[in-house]
Amino acid sequence: MSLNHTFWELLVALGLGLLTGLQKERAGPLLAGLRTFALITVFGAVTAILAETTGPWIIIAGLLSMTALLVTGNAMAAAEGRADPGQTTEVAVVLMFLVGALCVIGPLELAIVLGGAVAVLLHLKEELRGLVARLSDKDVRAVMQFVVISLIILPVLPNQAYGPFQVLNPRNIWFMVVLIVGLNLVGYAAFRTLGSRAGTALAGFLGGIISSTATTVSYARTTKTDPGRAGTAAVVVWIASGVVFVRILLEVAAVAPGFVSTVAGPMGVMLALFVVSAAVIWRSATSPSDSPMDPGNPSELKPAIAFAAMYAVILLAVAAAEEYLGGAGLYAAAFISGLTDIDAITLSTSNLVAGARLEADTGWRLILVAAMSNLLFKTAMVATLGSRQMLRRIGGLVGIALVAGVGLLLFW
Fold first, then answer.
1. Closest by CA position to 274, among listed 199, 196, 179, 378
2. Which of 144, 170, 348, 378 has its Cβ near the most Cβ atoms within 10 Å?
3. Tens-place pLDDT, residues 193-221
């Protein structure tokens, strides 16, 4: 190793120690401050340099000596009545010693990221405490259930295709569940942060992230008892329905990145149509703001399992339709599956395109047919649950969107 490179590693270790020490120095008179953290990180780097000739035992000895110093320092602070009740500084000291060693023996970039992350975590003490204080039991449960879904269940599932047409891959199917639950969790977090202050546009946007169909049902019901809210409800529902096309693009990008360029054109046209038409009907809103519906816990296990089953069925149905029924069967399957849920058909179609089992040009058309089917279903919900005023507004908009969709299917 060159001398210049060694000096550079020591300089980085010193800088990371000073960065962490700066935060602790400003926090108050604690166990370690600016100079101490700088020395600790350089100490770790020096032990790693010496380990190249003496062996790794010297790093272990350095770590043990750091631990002994921490114990001694805490004992002296306790005797003087100035002990820190927490353990954050002690953990940071040990970690920064190891970061200093990592500057020499590991990827330098990783050491820099870790050192920076330690400094930021120490700095965000009050902000993190405030965030935790604002979390309800329901919020924590949602996060932990997402951990179960994504970090416990997903890794243990077999990554192998089973069943007819070889399209049922358990890990792939559950990854789609993780993707949708994660997207819904983002919507839930946004609702918890902004829901009480949401205006009409934000209510529609959050509704589209969480569930445009559930948003339609919720707002349609409000107009049944209060017809005067029909204008505002129509704006919220229409914005939520437009966000569906944003969800489609995000889901396609996650599952089949090469498919995005094909899907982006027609879906972008539909999204632009929704944005323009939402701006036009904005003036019909009779109240300046509204609040989005409470999304409930987005990480419940039962709905996740139900979505996995639905996704698997749609995956099989599309593969079977392509094999036995040709184009007509594919579009029929897309239309039926899109009535109540657009995510499953979007993900299944993208998965088949990514696996070269379906043409990309056919894939985006299937997704668009499902989106149009979903619009028809929402219109039926408005007709059944909402007021006539809202149905007139939504019905006209849906008619325009369907004409545009058919035009794209025929001429794009």
1. 378
2. 348
3. 765 555 666 777 877 777 788 788 878 88
